[in-house]
Amino acid sequence: MTIGIVGSGRMGQDLFYSLMEYDCQVILVSRNQDQIDKITKRIQKKQRRDPQLMGGKTPIITDKLTDLADCDIMIETVIEDLNVKQEIFQRLEGIAKHTCIFATNTSSLDVTDVFFYGKAKERCLGLHYFYPLKVISAAEVNAGPDTSEETVKEMVKFLSMTGRKPLVLRGESRLVLSKLLISLAAYAYKLSLEGELTLKELDQITKQVLLFGIFEMVDSTGFPIISQCLINLPDHLHSNLFKPLLLQVSDFMKQGKDGRRGEGFLSSEDSGKRAAAYIVNREECYEAYGIRFLSFLLNEIARYMEDPLLDNKQFQETIEEVLGVSASLKSLYQELKEETILETLMTEYKKTLDPLFLPADFKVYRKL
């Protein structure tokens, strides 16, 4: 099997190095000559150190898309720009063999839009990997309305062969992990605007449930990607929630900050201006915010699990791995207790009249 990767950014390179360990020919296309030289030297060093590492198939690094002509699968990993992605796939269709599968590693754009001009839509889909690749084995397979079942099966087979756990998503469930992550970030930012806790304190609270702090995640992902998620992913329930975070991220970007170079939320927080308000019992405050965050998280997940097209068991396993939750979803639900979740959500709803906080049907957790 021959796999082509277009784009030598962080994801493109990580994916390239990951696939080298398996029995397939890997070709990386980059328009950056410095990157090509750097990656070539690294590959040569790996080969000298361990000649058997790549199974006798020397990876190819090139600046020519035409070198992908014999690929069985082409994976695009360039910037989250719809026009750029559309143009790349139009060019790739003119190069590829008639059986090639086209995949976009977008985290915020709908596959219908990315492949809008495609002539072989039945062989097109989204393929969303997660950072860090060495740790998270889950990958979303986002099937478009025209994607054939044969294409989905081939992609699932490829992912399984290369050590990944595929989560197949269709319809409204596409990019569900991106939607969930950005919703958690937007909600945590909403909580910060109440002024009782700093961003760093809220990060510590989220770490009680997740493997990472929410604002750590936002900063490490980078504001360009976060911005695109906030623009492209909201539905009618989430649009109001996303606006404050989008305004702040946009303001940071106007200042030339991207989040990933130590210029993010956590480094920009003015501890003097954002000193937490005087609270008699900080332990109770932390607990209250923790309950609100976990209730929101469980409600969001339960709402997605109502989708009949979603494999709930697969989704649960993927959620637990990607978020690195401290316990299973069912255990978190049982520990917090449904009455507490309902009371917390209804308190938020009565205060905001935002239907986002209306409780979902929690029977999905009882069925797990």
Automatic annotation (TrEMBL):
Any one Pfam family match given in the protein's UniProt record, by short name: 3HCDH_N
Family: Belongs to the 3-hydroxyacyl-CoA dehydrogenase family.
Residue ranges occupied by any 3-hydroxyacyl-CoA dehydrogenase NAD binding domain in the UniProt entry: 2-169
PANTHER family per the UniProt record, alphabetical: 3-HYDROXYACYL-COA DEHYDROGENASE FAMILY PROTEIN, 3-HYDROXYBUTYRYL-COA DEHYDROGENASE
Organism from which the protein derives: Lacrimispora amygdalina
UniProt name for this protein: 3-hydroxyacyl-CoA dehydrogenase family protein
A GO BP entry: fatty acid metabolic process
GO molecular function: NAD+ binding; oxidoreductase activity
